[in-house]
Amino acid sequence: MTDEATPVERPLSPHLQIYRPQITSISSILTRITGNGLIVGFVLGIWWLLAAAAGPEYFGFVNGIATSWFGDLVFTLSLLALWYHYLAGLRHLYWDAGHGLDIETAEMLGWACVMGSVLLTVITLFLV
Amino acid sequence: MRYLTDRKRAVGKGASGTGTDHHWYMTVSAVGLAVMFPTFLIVFGRALGRDHAGVLETFASPFVAILSALVLVIGLQHFRKGAETLIEDYMRGMNRKFAIVFVITFTYFLMATGLYALARMAL
After folding, report:
1. What is the pTM of this model?
2. ipTM greater than 0.85, yes or no?
């Protein structure tokens, strides 16, 4: 923790803004965004569970929010985020095992995560 | 006098000081969540939109109660560690410390709240 101490002039390596967006970098960034963003769906879901446990009156109030257009929006986006994060996580497990690290496969897996998450979201919405 | 050599203290620990513990935890929880989440999504999605009695009926099932509790605890623990990494990447100094303390506290708060709700419906 030697932060905010004396700034040292060091050569800087090129960072994100230098590079053209690629599916490998975008899919990595999306993994982080979806994983952290899922807390919103969790908060609404846990609030809804608490309301169900608390009693019919309070449940009516929270259930009204959870099943409104706002609730639908939060849960549908959470579902998409969850499936994306799910597939990206599987991709990480696959990579950790030492497979699929060549550029061609890695790019293909990135697109698979993006398209697979949309497909799985639609399938889940049909099932529930 | 320190009996451990510098090398001995460093081996396997890296910059985090905890070696690969964090990464391994994320791997294990990811596998667990990957197994549990598809079923949980269907159960939760079907319960959502039912009336109060219907929701109570869903979560009174032991299978649903245990599955939901596992998803809740492991999911939030997985979130906690991921969010910690996010903070470590983008924040410094006291802000970083406060943010990490907040994330951990908030995660445990959500866990306790969710478990209370599940227990009350299941028992």
Report:
1. 0.89
2. yes
